[in-house]
């Protein structure tokens, strides 16, 4: 980000373009609608698609931010025509409409906070609970165990801008929104010594 960049643009004139899907991470977007509260444009859900919105204040020479679920600062409480903003997306799938704000994806379930651990090495080769009762392979990146979701549920597990897709193939003595992963899947998001990690969990599809 360049400190002396201009964080405004002319109001959009003419027919609005189609809403565009925003990738995970930071995107630079423009606002062409009427005066609108930031919580209406970016959402109020703490675990929604938007993690943070930032706008550069040229008078104060500092960033003013808004995070859904938190009160908006007075200097960044209303969007005005021509405003340009950095949006940080925590999950993919939402779209940005320059006059109406964030359009959430139609997900099977809301993204929820949870935690991950990984199978103890002694469990390698053991039979997993869910049909067809495959044997646990620590290098199988699709293996997940959970009690919150039934066998066969496909989950996408996010940590910051990284994710891994797993299938619930096993169960165990696990808490709510707790997924036990294979070592290979866990290492897509963390290093093994971390042991237990807070994540966001998205349901991609229910059991077939």
Give a verbal description of the structure.
With 208 residues, this protein is mainly beta. It has two domains: 20-103; 112-205, Barwin-like endoglucanases. Helix content is 4%, strand content 36%. The protein contains two helices and 15 strands. The chain has helices at 38-42, 183-186, and strands spanning 20-21, 25-30, 36-37, 50-57, 62-66, 78-79, 84-89, 95-97, 101-103, 112-118, 143-145, 154-159, 162-170, 178-181, 197-205. Strand 12 and strand 13 form a beta hairpin. Mean pLDDT is 87; it is low at 1-9.
Write the layout of secondary structure elements.
Blueprint: E1 20-21, E2 25-30, E3 36-37, H1 38-42, E4 50-57, E5 62-66, E6 78-79, E7 84-89, E8 95-97, E9 101-103, E10 112-118, E11 143-145, E12 154-159, E13 162-170, E14 178-181, H2 183-186, E15 197-205
Relevant terms:
mainly beta; 4-stranded antiparallel beta sheet; 4% helix; disordered N terminus; 208 residues; Barwin-like endoglucanases; 2 helices
Q: What would the average pLDDT be, to the nearest integer?
A: 87
Low-confidence stretches: 1-9
Q: In angstroms, what is the radius of gyration?
A: 21 Å
Given the C-alpha coordinates, what overall shape results?
elongated
Query: What is the strand content?
Result: 35-45%
Q: From the helix content, strand content and strand pairing, which structural class follows? A: mainly beta
- Number of H/I helices: 2
The CATH superfamily of the largest domain is RlpA-like domain
CATH architecture of the largest domain: Beta Barrel
**CATH C-level name of the largest domain:** Mainly Beta
Looking at the structure, the CATH topology of the largest domain is Barwin-like endoglucanases
Overall tally of structural domains: 2
Sketch the topology as an H/E string, one letter per element. EEEHEEEEEEEEEEEHE
Share of helix among residues?
under 10%
Largest sheet: 6 strands, mixed, barrel
Q: How many strand units?
A: 15
In order across it, which strands form the biggest sheet?
A: 10-14-11-13-12-15
Alpha-carbon distance between the two ends? 45 Å
């Amino acid at each position: 980000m360049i400190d002396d960049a201009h964080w405004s643009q002319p109001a959009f004139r003419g027919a609005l373009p189609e809403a565009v899907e925003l990738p995970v991470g930071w995107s630079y977007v423009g606002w062409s609608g009427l005066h609108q509260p930031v919580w209406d444009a970016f959402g109020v859900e703490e675990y929604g698609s938007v993690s943070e919105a930032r706008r550069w204040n040229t008078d104060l020479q500092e960033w003013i931010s808004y995070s859904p679920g938190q009160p908006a600062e007075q200097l960044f409480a209303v969007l005005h025509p021509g405003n340009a903003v950095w949006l940080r997306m925590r999950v993919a799938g939402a779209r940005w409409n320059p006059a109406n704000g964030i359009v959430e994806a139609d997900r099977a379930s809301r993204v929820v906070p949870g935690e991950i651990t990984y199978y103890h090495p002694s469990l390698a080769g053991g039979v997993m609970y869910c049909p067809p009762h495959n044997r646990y392979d620590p290098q199988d990146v699709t293996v997940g165990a959970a009690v919150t979701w039934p066998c066969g549920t496909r989950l996408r597990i996010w940590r910051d801008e990284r994710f891994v897709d797993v299938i619930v193939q096993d169960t165990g003595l696990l808490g709510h929104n707790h997924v036990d992963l294979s070592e290979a899947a866990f290492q897509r998001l963390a290093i093994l010594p971390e042991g237990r990690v807070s994540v966001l969990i998205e349901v991609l599809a229910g059991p077939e």
